[in-house]
Amino acid sequence: MFSGVSVEAKNPKMTPMELQAIQSREFEVTKDVAFGAVMTVIQDLGYTVESADLASGFVTAASPTENKAGFFEILGGMSASGNTVMTAFMLQMPNGMTRIRLNFVNSKSTSSAYGRDSRQDKPILDPAVYNNAWERIDEALFVMGAISEKSGAPKSQAPMTTHDSGSTTSQPPSAADAPK
To answer: Which helix (H) or strand (E) holds 135?
Structure first.
């Protein structure tokens, strides 16, 4: 009886709007600029880009695969490995902003000594994971703006994030705010 309560507390159900609130942001840049920033961040985080298409605005990437076998799995003759798969979707909005939606999923594959294979995918719903990605994208957009200004190329609009409520904005992170 109590185990069901604790499981729900650990895995709260999110409404689609709550999920979009942590997975989506709008930036005051073109889709091309947003695409470049997202690709930079994906690679900076150590992911391997599996597919990317500027026209559709869709990117898939995966982290390196790691051994995920626990002590008892190894004793039972099982092997396990896993990684994180990430997708990003960028959409140019009618107001000139670009909406980016990120999705992170942990994947674990197991194989027994008897040939039985299984795979478990678990969405990452921790807002801190997404906030880290948004901070890095803000930073990449800021750097890209600074680079284009110094090179003499036309400067894109300064990055400004707008949360889905439309009322909250943030400035690019300072060096003190940068992830360590």
So the answer is: helix 127-150
Structure tokens at 163: 């949360």
Q: Which two tokens stand for residue 90?
A: 């960028």
Mean pLDDT value of segment 150-176: 40
Domains and CATH numbers, the chain: 23-65+86-104+124-153 (3.30.310.80)
Tell me the backbone φ, ψ of residue 71, rounded to 5 degrees.
-55, -50
Residue 78, CA distances (Å) to 29, 59, 75, 97, 145 in order: 48, 33, 7, 49, 50
Judge contact between 82 and 114, C-beta under 8 A: no
Q: How many residues can be counted in the chain?
A: 180
pLDDT digits (tens, 9 = 90+) for 71-114: 555 555 666 678 899 999 999 999 999 999 999 999 887 776 67
Q: CB under 8 Å to 81, separation ≥6 — which residues?
A: 65, 66, 67, 68, 69, 108, 109
Taking the CA atoms of residue 176, residue 49, residue 108 and residue 17 in that order, the dihedral angle to the nearest 10 degrees is: 60
